[in-house]
Amino acid sequence: MSTDPLCIKEEDILTKAQSIMRETGYRSLPVTDEQCNRVTGILSRGDALTVSSRKTNVEVRGVMNHNVVSTSPGEDIYVAARKLTDSRVRQLPVVDDEGRLEGMLSSMDVLAAFVDQGYKTTKKTISQVMNPDVIYCSEDDEVSRLWNIMEESGFGGLPVVDRKGKVKGMITRMDILRKRSLHIGKESGKKKKAQVKKAMTADPTTIKSDTETLKAAILMVESKIIRLPVVDDKGKLVGIVDSEDILRSYLS
Question: How open is the CA angle 48-53-59, to the nearest 5 degrees?
Fold first, then answer.
């Protein structure tokens, strides 16, 4: 786990949390009481993007998730991994018996531990763990369209493909968060016609469906990538796999 994590308070303004996420790349932030002691919630990137206006007095408490899935310092790593995969969260606050925050544990932390300790996967190839029903977009799509798709599907990143189905890029919630000028003011009803190609990461790392899951785990850990488009020999999109999918290959 990571120790001394950054935390925010319930009464903090949401734009402060957005700024922290942009600067650090954190996918979620634990929310604590006024003494920055007990964990009362967690704020994800998706939560942070529900309000996009630069001038807002919305407090973190208004959009954070109050139902916190957490772990403890002494909990078995496999149990923590199951919590991550079952709850579909990428980070767990690590709290003591009194609910005090001691650290944060991410899916990549657990995956790195499995790789470092030489644990073996039970599902051997990406084809066994990938999601073949991929939601994707094109370079010319408007960011406002993706905003709704990400919010409704819960997916934090989408592959960007051309007309032939070849992968051209990836766009994530963090890409949108960092491109502040592309924010869509949903709460005010305003929309900006910003295209995906202005925010996406071009030429992303991809993987084949016959790649061993262990190799994918090593690639994710070494490259710090949590999501990989799966392509065929012609570079066409056939699926997607993320760190939770790879974690499941160790658990079942």
Answer: 50
Q: What is the DSSP letter of 131?
A: B
Number of domains in the chain: 2
Q: Which of 59, 74, 106 is the last residue of a domain?
A: 106
130, part of any domain: yes
Write down the pLDDT at residue 188.
46
H or E, element range at 109:
helix 107-116
Q: In terms of residue numbers, what domain contains 28?
A: 2-106
206-246 pLDDT, tens digit each: 999 999 999 999 999 999 999 999 999 999 999 999 999 99
Last residue of a domain, which of 78, 106, 134?
A: 106
Query: CB count, 10 Å around CB of 131?
Result: 13
Q: Which residues contact 74 (CB under 8 A, 6 or more apart)?
A: none
Both tokens assigned to 232? 């065929």
**Run of H or E including 113:** helix 107-116
* pLDDT > 90 fraction of the chain, expressed in percent and rounded: 57
Q: Are 65 and 43 in contact (CB under 8 A)?
A: yes
Residue 131 lies in a domain: yes
Sign of CA dihedral 111, 117, 120, 124: positive
- Residue spans of beta strands (DSSP E) within the chain: 2-3, 8-9, 28-32, 39-44, 91-95, 101-106, 157-161, 167-172, 201-202, 207-208, 227-231, 237-242
Cα angle value 35/55/46 (rounded, 5°): 65
- pTM for this structure? 0.81
Regarding whether 140 and 220 lie in a shared domain, the answer is yes
Nearest-angstrom CA–CA distance, 40 and 247: 27
